Amino acid sequence: MYKILLKVKKPIDAELNLMNLSSINLIEKTEKKITNIPLIYKNKKCKVKDIFTIILKKNNLDYDEVFISGSNKFFNYIGYGWKKDHLRIDSDVGSFAAVKMRSGKLIINGSAEDFLGSSMLGGYVHVKKNVQNFLGSAFVGSRSGMTGGTILVTGSVGNFAAAHMRRGLIIIRGNVGKYCAFQMISGTVMIFKSFAESIGISMKRGTIILMSNGKFGKRFEKSGVINFIFLDLFAAHMKSNFSVTLPDKKKFIRYFGDKNANGLGEIFLKKG
Questions:
Q1: What is the rounded distance in angstroms from the CA atom of residue 177 to the CA atom of residue 183?
Q2: Cis peptide before 248, with omega less than 30 degrees from 0?
Q3: How would you classify the pairing of strands 265-270 and 207-210?
Q4: Residue 125, strand partner residues
């Protein structure tokens, strides 16, 4: 297997479409094959060799590693349909990162623009700063949001996070904007800090775990029955995979709704 370093030759100042870069998952790992992967920059066709210098080395792992150095908000479609390999970005990225991602890992040591993880199928994404709107939501022209995998955002997230989400796990360590989990069908969303009152509008099923206090209107009713089994399993998962220790399960209040949409979703709100 290989370690592949792609370093930007000169600053990118307009949209760079990296959708085809994901073919690196499939092709033979030679410098010639990699340098000739087609890209689009400033709406013109180009190749990887026109944008990046390439360093190719063998590693001792059972997967390939791809490192991109010199990225910014113009880097769109990074990790589109990505699978099996590990992709690490040293700074910010643009929109549509990890759209339709299938497996593997994407680590972004910066922030991301809109539609990160839209219609994601599997894999793991970690954004170490912030994400703009439509995190894990339905991709343009699709009815389904994220259907599998895990997204961890260390910072905060904008509006419509987890809209139309069907499965998977989204963890937001910061704040989240308006309409989080809009028309959510299944899956789990965990938010550590503030959220808007519009959270869970038209939610059908799924679970939202809120670690700070806030309001979500009368669309959700308090339930006298708490699914302790789910909380036990979720707490074990968080501790094992993210080194996060959740409060005692008895410190949560369970709500269900959205009543206005005949929904059976649930919100666990941490007391106090």
A1: 15
A2: no
A3: parallel
A4: 106, 151
